[in-house]
Predict the 3D structure of the following.
Amino acid sequence: MNSISKSTLDFLKELKQNNNREWFAENKARFEAEQKKVKTFYNSVMEHLKATDLIENVKIFRIYRDVRFSKDKLPFKSHFGGQFTRATNKLRGGYYLHISPGESFLAGGFWEPNKEDLARIRKEFETDASEIRAIINSVDFKNHFGKLQGEAVKSAPRGFDKNHPNIDLIRLKQFIVTREFTDEEVLAPNFLQEVTASFVAMRPYLDYMSDVLT
C-alpha cells in the first residue's frame, strides 16, 4: 500500500463522534478491516526504512485507551499510531507515524530523555554545537521539519551560563522533529514515498544524537 485508505479516515472520524463501547462493538468488523489496512501500510514503511537504517520492528499501538489514571474516560483513541524501533543499543531515537483525520504527522527524536541523557546532550551543546547546527540548518532538514522542537526551561539549566552562545539549544529538555500532513497528502498515492523521504531526512539527526549518547 502506498497511501492510507479514505475509509480509514472515515472510520476514525465516526469513532471520534461515537466514542463509546456500544458503537465500537457494533462496528468491530469495520475496525478490524481498517486496522489490517493500516498494518499493511506501516509494514510497507518499515520495509522502505530498512533500506536506509537498521530497524528492529514496528509496533502499532492499541486503539484501546488506558483510562485508569486519566480524567478523560473516553475508551478509544481516534487515531492509529505506530513506532519504528532502531536496532541495537547504539542506534538511539526512533520514528513515529500518527494517522488521524486533520491531525496526521510523523515525528522522531527524544521526547523524555532521562536525567543522564539530558545532561550528556546539554554538555555536548555547551562544548560544541557546530555539528548539530549544521544538521538542523541544512536545506533537507528545514524542508522536511522546519526546526528542532521541544519544551525548554525558562532561563538556563543549573550549572550552565544563561549567556552561553548555545543557550537556545541547552535550554531544551525535549529534542523532537515533526512533519504534519493534510488528509489530502495522507490519501495521495505518493504518501509512502513522502513518509519514507522524511524519515531518511531525519537519519543524520538521529545518528548524531546516537553518537552523543553512546
User: Anything to note?
Assistant: The mean pLDDT is 96.
